[in-house]
Write a structure and sequence with these properties.
The protein is built from eleven helices and 13 strands. With 285 residues, it is of the alpha/beta class. The protein is elongated. It folds into two domains: 5-184, P-loop containing nucleotide triphosphate hydrolases (Rossmann fold); 198-281, no CATH class. The chain has a seven-stranded parallel sheet, with helices on both faces. The protein is 39% helix and 23% strand. Residues 18-177 form the MEDS domain. This is MEDS domain-containing protein. It holds the Pfam family MEDS. It comes from Mycolicibacterium rufum. InterPro entries: MEDS_domain.
Length: 285
């Protein structure tokens, strides 16, 4: 299984680790971005720093991080404002997820061609996450790019301003294999095993229902048609309402979902509810 979990900092996610971080205050974002970029520089990766401000303002912010400013690779950090980093649907402030994915792929290829060991970016994603329409499209990018990150030499720290986004930030943070502490109660992300459609971990109780519903409605259409195998071996809790919702949406989208878990509550509920499109399979030992 691909490594995943809850983090207290952005340091040490090597060689690559896709991290979702909800920050409060610019100082926290810069601290986490500095940790993440410094690891990349030390690993020989091409690194990029992206946020909504102007390039000059962002360069000044980077220079305020002592460990980066004094690093030999500091001058080589790519600095971009979000308006230039993301491609957008014409005439809107909604990013184009598939065009953005192509840009990521090209950035990885360029980094490798230039002799780097991979590509890593620290990105404040808040600018393209403010509206429902933006989050709909951003979910597509987060989900699809994580599929790539599971098998290719690149990753990103995706930072979200929780002072601005509040609870809706969890809709996007949950799509990362690594997250900050208490930022989402569950995670849904890619695995490096091609037989596994997704990894589902954490606790999904009634308080997470709205976020879980948004996640499923956005993500299920992106999955392969037919049978989906979901590694839920680290799923600690789920209620009957979430299982019923998963069953309903799986039917709508022509999927059947097998949760691989020995979680007793999930097994018992699946049997009691007589779900048609969701089943539970015990993991092989």
């Amino acid at each position: 299984m691909r490594a995943h979990g809850v983090r207290l900092s952005a340091a040490g996610l090597l060689p690559f680790g896709h991290l979702g971080w909800g920050y409060r205050g610019r100082a926290e974002f810069l601290c986490r971005a500095g940790e993440y970029l410094l690891d990349g520089l030390n690993r020989g990766q091409r690194v990029a720093f992206v946020a909504e401000q102007s390039v000059d303002a962002l360069r000044a912010e980077l220079a305020s991080v002592d460990a980066l400013r004094t690093h030999p690779g500091f001058a080589g950090i790519d600095v971009l404002c979000a308006a230039d980093y993301y491609p957008f649907h014409p005439g809107t402030d909604v990013l184009d997820a598939y065009a953005a994915l192509d840009r990521y792929r090209a950035a990885v290829d360029d980094a490798i061609s230039a002799g780097h060991t991979g590509f890593r970016a620290a990105v404040d994603v808040t600018a393209v996450a403010r509206t429902v329409e933006q989050r709909d499209e951003l979910t597509v990018l987060e989900y699809l790019v994580d599929q790539e990150m599971a098998v290719r030499p690149f990753s990103a720290l995706c930072a979200y301003d929780l002072d601005e986004l509040a609870d809706v930030g969890a809709e996007l943070l949950c799509l990362h294999p690594f997250v900050g502490e208490r930022m989402t109660s569950y995670q849904l992300h890619a695995d490096d095993d091609p037989a596994v459609a997704a990894v589902l971990s954490g606790e999904i109780d009634q308080s997470a229902m709205d976020v879980f519903s948004s996640t499923l409605r956005r993500v299920l259409p992106l999955t392969p048609e037919g049978a989906l195998r979901v590694d839920a071996t680290r799923l600690e809790f789920i209620t009957h309402r979430q299982l019923m919702l998963l069953d309903e949406l799986a039917e709508q989208h022509g999927r059947s979902v097998t949760l691989v878990t020995d979680q007793r509550v999930a097994t018992r509920l699946t049997n009691l509810l007589a779900l048609r499109h969701v089943s539970v399979l015990a993991p092989s030992r």
